[in-house]
């Protein structure tokens, strides 16, 4: 079973005054740009090494997009193609339900709508011959609108038999099994987009005197020890 981390601990290193980082601060090789969206408060300490004054603070790396997909209809799951850790594209099928009952209901109300339209057409023809009154025509028209609403409702339920990916990403957690019968509102999958990440950094309030938007800083991940280049996008 694959494990997908939703949050990754890290250290953020900032140069006072917004200077560019020396090579020792960001490491060798290329780096990924990681936007920063939130700054909180905590104590800071000075990093060892180098002549340039660098302050560091704890931070948390997490995906910008993550969600738990839930069932919009009651039914039996007959398609659950992805496992935890699997990647998917936007629009890919994530969960499929047995839709035979809902399709049958759609066929039934579609036939009723067809019959209601014929009844309305006949009522209008009889009204031209003064065989029925205006009330009968209006009631026949109301029946058509009711049947059309039932068709729309049944069509929505048929479309809800398929849950597709709202964005490209990975399966973080699979909360159900194939062939399991679930109720409406049951959580099914937890998914994340791990391509676009944000950093929540904690910093003391006195940093607000010199920290600013677009200021560059370095990020070091706890799990891998690798360093990346980033910038502040919101205070």
Provide an overview of this structure.
There is one protein chain. With 235 residues, this protein is α+β, with helices and mostly antiparallel strands. 25% of the residues lie in helices and 36% in strands. The protein is built from three helices and 13 strands. It has a six-stranded mixed beta barrel with strand order 1-4-11-2-13-12. The longest helix is centred in the middle third of the chain and has 29 residues, at 100-128. It starts with 7 loop residues before the first strand and ends with a strand. The model is unreliable at 18-52 (pLDDT under 50).
- Show unreliable segments: 18-52
What is the N-to-C succession of helices and strands?
EHEEEEEEHHEEEEEE
The chain-level mean pLDDT equals 80
Strand order of the largest sheet: 1-4-11-2-13-12
User: Shape, please?
Assistant: elongated
Helical coverage, percent range = 25-40%
**Sheet having the most strands:** 6 strands, mixed, barrel
Rg from Cα: 29 Å
Number of strands: 13
Strand content: 35-45%
Query: Based on helices, strands and strand pairing, what is the structural class?
Result: alpha+beta
Number of helices: 3
Q: Roughly how many Å apart are the termini?
A: 38 Å
């Amino acid at each position: 079973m694959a494990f997908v981390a939703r949050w990754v601990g890290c250290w953020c290193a900032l140069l006072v005054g917004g200077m560019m980082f020396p090579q020792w601060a960001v490491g060798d090789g290329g780096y990924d740009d990681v936007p920063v969206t939130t700054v909180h408060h905590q104590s800071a300490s000075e990093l060892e090494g180098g002549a340039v004054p660098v302050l560091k603070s704890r931070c948390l790396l997490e995906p910008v997009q993550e969600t738990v997909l839930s069932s919009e209809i009651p039914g039996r799951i007959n398609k659950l193609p992805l496992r935890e850790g699997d990647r998917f594209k936007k629009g890919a099928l994530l969960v499929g339900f047995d839709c035979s009952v809902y399709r049958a209901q759609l066929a039934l109300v579609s036939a009723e709508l067809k019959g209601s339209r014929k009844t309305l057409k006949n009522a209008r023809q009889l009204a031209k011959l003064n065989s029925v009154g205006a009330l009968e025509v209006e009631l026949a028209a109301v029946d058509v609108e009711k049947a059309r609403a039932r068709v729309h409702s049944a069509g929505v339920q048929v479309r809800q038999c398929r849950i597709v990916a709202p964005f490209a990403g990975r399966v973080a957690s699979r909360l159900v099994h194939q062939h399991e019968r679930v109720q409406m509102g049951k959580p099914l999958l937890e998914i994340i987009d791990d391509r676009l990440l944000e950093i929540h950094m904690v910093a003391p309030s006195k940093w607000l005197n010199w920290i600013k938007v677009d200021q560059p800083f370095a990020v070091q991940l706890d799990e891998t020890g690798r360093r990346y280049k980033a910038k502040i996008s919101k205070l």
